[in-house]
Design brief:
Helices cover 73% and strands 5% of the residues. The chain is mainly alpha-helical. α1 (2-24) runs antiparallel to α2 and α3 (148-165) crosses α8.
Length: 400
């Protein structure tokens, strides 16, 4: 705006100068040039002054606007800073809470880990003690099983444990070391079956070669003892088949005899070493039974025995019902006969109490009327005794 005013003033000065010159007439050229130069200088000076004033005014305005903008920006920055600090405080509190919870979880995890370590240590200690006890028991068992008699007793004990677990009772569901009725063989166990049949089981089993196999240090020794063990088992199967328990005695027997293997590991080892031994034993009517298979087999045997007892009891009940039916028929016939006789007696009584009584009462009433009309008293000699009750004549009156 100041620059515009300066230009206008310079223009006005130029116009006034022109007018003055035209009034005065033509001046010498030098004086005119000097005056024009002076005017140009004055106009340039005024223009520069105006420009400087305009620049200073613009600078003042710009500074004021800049200060206002700076103040607004400062206020905005202050507000944003306050908001940021509030958000940072909230985030800090949340982080502090989360860190506190994480610390608690870490402490709980540490305590749980310490307890777990203590439990693992206790378990390892108990396991070590159990392992040591098991090693001692295993050694004692090996020493005990070195004797054939001890092996037989151990097999009997294992078999008895399975029998008790199956719920069988000695002298009720099985007999131990009982000779075959009418024979000389003495099986280890005898199981009574329905219809008077029996089932025999032998628990003696060759374990010497198996124990040597477990103690062998080289593969060659283990192979030799394994072959010996398989051969001993086959010989035991043939020996048991040759005894022919089912052919002896007077009681009928199942065509198969049970051969008890006293340990599941031993049974698995037999099947692994000689898979065809089971079929070969079945061909000789010998059934190989481990503790687990014996338990299942005895369950089947017991179920069959219970079914037989139920069947036998049902037959006895049916027989009793048949006898009861016969007696009931006889009772019904006798009851009908008595009923008929009672009906005949009732009919006879009704006839006496009705028709015959009324027929006798009519002449008796006539006689009583005649005696009364003539004034004849009753003969005291024929009066009834005091303790004899008079009977009703059916009309509400007592007879004389």
């Amino acid at each position: 705006m100041v620059v515009v005013l300066a230009v206008v003033v310079a223009g006005a000065v130029g116009v006034a100068l022109g007018v003055a010159l035209r009034r005065r007439g033509a001046a010498p050229a030098d004086a005119l040039q000097a005056a024009l130069g002076a005017l140009r200088e004055q106009a340039a000076a005024e223009r520069d002054t105006a420009v400087r004033a305009a620049l200073e005014q613009a600078a003042i305005l710009n500074r004021q606007q800049l200060d206002a903008g700076l103040q607004a920006g400062q206020r905005e920055l202050t507000a944003r800073h306050e908001q940021s600090e509030a958000r940072l405080d909230l985030v800090e509190r949340r982080m502090r809470d989360e860190l506190g919870r994480v610390g608690e979880l870490v402490q709980q995890l540490g305590r749980h880990h310490a307890a777990s370590l203590r439990g693992v240590e206790a378990t390892l200690a108990a396991h070590a003690e159990t392992t040591a006890a098991l090693a001692g028991t295993t050694q004692s068992l090996r020493e005990a099983l070195a004797s054939p008699k001890a092996r037989g007793q151990w097999g009997e004990r294992m078999a008895e444990d399975v029998l008790r677990l199956a719920g069988l009772v000695e002298h009720v569901n099985y007999e131990k070391q009982t000779a075959v009725t009418g024979g000389r063989a003495v099986p280890d166990f005898t199981f009574p079956l329905p219809k008077g049949h029996v089932l025999y089981m032998d628990v003696k089993f060759p374990l010497a070669a198996y124990l040597r196999y477990l103690d062998a240090g080289t593969e060659a020794e283990r192979g030799a003892h394994r072959a010996t063990f398989v051969r001993d088992v086959r010989l035991r199967v043939r020996e048991l088949a040759a005894r022919e328990y089912m052919r002896q005695g007077t009681r009928p027997s199942v065509d198969y005899v049970l051969m008890f293997l006293p340990n599941e590991t031993v049974a698995a080892f037999v099947h692994e070493c000689d898979p065809g031994l089971v079929d070969e034993a079945l061909g000789q009517r010998v059934v190989l039974c481990s503790p687990l298979t014996l338990f299942a087999l005895l369950g089947v045997i017991r179920q069959a025995f219970d079914n037989f007892m139920v069947e036998q009891t049902s037959e006895e009940i049916l027989a009793v019902l048949g006898a009861f039916e016969q007696q009931w028929q006889k009772f019904a016939a006798s009851l009908d006969a008595v009923g008929k006789r009672l009906d005949s007696t009732q009919n006879a009584y009704d006839e006496l109490a009705g028709t015959r009584r009324r027929a006798l009462e009519r002449p008796l009433a006539r006689l009583s009327s005649l005696r009364t009309d003539r004034g004849i008293a009753a003969d005291p000699a024929y009066a009834p005794d005091a303790d004899v009750l008079a009977f009703d004549d059916g009309r509400g009156e007592l007879g004389a």
